[in-house]
Design brief:
It is a single chain. The protein is an all-alpha fold. The protein has one domain. It has 17 helices and no strands. α1 packs parallel to α16, α3 packs parallel to α16 and α8 runs antiparallel to α13. The longest helix is centred in the last third of the chain and has 38 residues. The protein is globular. The C terminus is likely disordered.
């Protein structure tokens, strides 16, 4: 919702881009938690991991790209000449680098929001190998220290390339300059996998019942403030936003009585959460199509665009994403079921 508000009503000082910060931290946390569970059980397989990620994310993206492109061509909307190049960046999950060097490659009218998916995919292609190596060679506390050290290095790297003349677009969209938020989620998962660390964090958060709700409300305000300060956000702002996001996530996960957890567990929020991937995929192309077709971008048009976004996201979730996840789950369950072997002498 933060991101949709930010894109639909850019005149508002919402700091709505912090929705992406929360998304990065949550992704790092969920993926690392899943991998740790499988590594502890001796069940982790690289092939299965990459297949699950592909089934979960790629088909819905392909449908959005195909649907948007067909409408652009059918209505002869501008720009059509750049469309093949834009699609290539999207489907190779490199659109973040297109935006990082926007002065060289230009922007994409319909698919510019897929930059965050590029960073996610680059994370998925690198982090499993690093975690498996660290998991086998380091103790859990030392693994946590290594991740925290990497976060500090990324923060320092941002400062160095900014001082060297890097644009804020380069810093905002570069994998190397945004990976610290995903790593915050990874660090959170590693810390919470240790009972002693988990007890300390959870007990502290339970003593602050309104903290996560306050942080959740403060995130867009903090983001808007740091954005207005210019240099504050690129240097340390992303790391600070990631820290706040991590506290909200762990509080909602382990303290269901907290205010934030109770708000987010309400049925409308659960529904929006279930279709959130589709909402992110479709909201910007739909709004861009309204503008490119001459329909306008007034309040009524944006309201209609939002309703269409919910409709397309719901169709994507119930008609594509959920059936594919069910199929994938059934396939894994079948593969994990041991085959019965005939008893000795049964074939004699």
């Amino acid at each position: 919702l933060f991101v949709v508000l930010f894109h639909f009503w850019r005149g508002l000082p919402t700091g709505g881009y912090v929705g992406v910060d929360i998304f990065f931290v949550l992704s790092g946390y969920l993926i690392t938690s899943l991998m740790i569970g499988e590594l502890e059980a001796g069940a982790f397989q690289f092939g299965a991991f990459f297949l699950r990620r592909t089934i979960r994310l790629a088909p819905a993206l392909w449908v959005m790209v195909a649907g948007t492109s067909l409408v652009v061509m059918a209505l002869s909307l501008d720009p059509q000449r750049e469309l093949p190049g834009d699609i290539a960046f999207v489907l190779t999950y490199t659109s973040n680098w297109k935006r990082a060097f926007i002065e060289r490659f230009g922007d994409s009218r319909y698919f510019c929001h897929t930059w965050s998916l590029g960073i996610e995919e680059q994370f998925y292609l690198s982090w499993p190998f690093l975690l498996v190596a660290g998991f086998s060679r380091l103790s859990r506390p030392n693994l946590l220290k290594a991740i925290l050290a990497a976060i500090a290095i990324v923060t320092l790297w941002r400062w160095l390339i900014l001082a060297d003349g890097a644009t804020t677009f380069r810093i905002y969209h570069g994998f190397d300059t945004r990976i610290d938020e995903l790593l915050f989620g990874c660090a959170l998962a590693v810390a919470l996998s240790m009972p002693s660390y988990r007890a300390i964090v959870v007990d502290w958060l339970k003593a602050q019942p309104a903290l996560s709700a306050t942080l959740l409300a403060a995130l867009p305000i903090l983001g808007a403030y740091m954005d207005s300060e210019g240099v504050a956000l690129p240097i340390f702002g992303y790391t600070l936003l990631a820290l706040f996001s991590a506290l909200v996530i762990v509080d909602c996960r382990f303290n269901p009585a907290s205010l934030a957890a109770r708000i987010l567990s309400k049925q409308p929020m659960v529904f929006l959460g279930s279709i959130s991937y589709g909402v992110y995929l479709w909201h910007l192309p739909i709004l861009a199509l309204f503008i490119a077709s001459g329909a306008g971008s007034g309040l009524a048009q944006k309201g209609l665009a939002f309703l269409l976004t919910l409709a397309m996201a719901s169709a994507s979730h119930y008609g594509l994403e959920r059936p594919l996840l069910r199929w994938s789950g059934a396939r894994r369950a079948k593969a994990a079921t041991p085959r019965l072997q005939p008893a000795p002498g049964a074939l004699a």
